[in-house]
Amino acid sequence: MASYLWRKYADYVYNKWERTLLWDMLEPYRRPKSFTPLVTIYIAAFYTGVVGAAITEQLYKENYWEDHPGEAVPLMKPKFYGGPWKVLKGDVLPPNE
């Protein structure tokens, strides 16, 4: 029985090596993998950021209106950018604190 199992194991290992060699030769001719999952993740991440920015801006406006009812809401300062930035139309905001 032991010799039978060793023979089966040897056949398995040899065939496994043979299969690997065969697929390594065919690998350059395979069609490329699909980019659909990657594109889907990028689109989902983009729209998550868009929705997050809209919610943040709306909360900023509501907080401003609570303190200054009836006034126009000034532009919101960028959250993740501390460098210089220019406002083309509207009032320039005070510097970041």
From TrEMBL:
Sorted UniProt keywords: Membrane, Transmembrane, Transmembrane helix
Transmembrane segments: 35-55
Keyword Membrane among UniProt keywords: yes
InterPro entries, per the entry: At4g29660-like
PANTHER family given in the database record: OS05G0540200 PROTEIN
Protein name: EMBRYO DEFECTIVE 2752
Organism in which the protein naturally occurs: Hibiscus trionum (Flower of an hour)
